[in-house]
Write a structure and sequence with these properties.
The protein has 101 residues and is an alpha+beta fold. It is built from three helices and six strands. Strands 1, 2, 3, 4, 5 and 6 form a six-stranded antiparallel beta sheet that branches.
Length: 101
């Protein structure tokens, strides 16, 4: 059994496959008192195709919590939201910016 098929059978992989999921990332620059964050929400799918897994695993970010059998999940973004803070204040109002496809 391949590591990929073992990972697909794991409880976390089964729980997230075809569920609605969210992912958020961002950064803070303390010296400039600036920050940004982006969140995507949408249906998730465990990536099982070897070719589709190879590219992000080669060029994507390194996992901060490496696991014996890592699972790659794709989120089909429906709402995408973002926020930027510059000089300690939100840019463009207090509400997060909404980005549509």
């Amino acid at each position: 059994m391949s590591a990929n098929s073992e990972a697909r059978r794991s409880a976390p992989a089964r729980a997230i496959d075809r569920a609605v999921a969210a992912f958020r990332t961002g950064d803070v620059d303390v010296a400039r008192r600036a920050a940004w964050s982006v969140a995507v929400t949408g249906p998730a799918a465990v990536v099982t195709d070897a070719a589709a897994r190879d590219r992000p695993l080669r060029s994507g970010p390194v996992s901060r919590v490496p696991a014996r059998h890592e699972v790659l999940v794709r989120i089909e973004p429906e709402p995408v939201t973002g926020r930027e803070l510059a000089g300690g204040r939100p840019q463009g109002g207090v509400e997060p910016a909404r980005v549509e496809d």
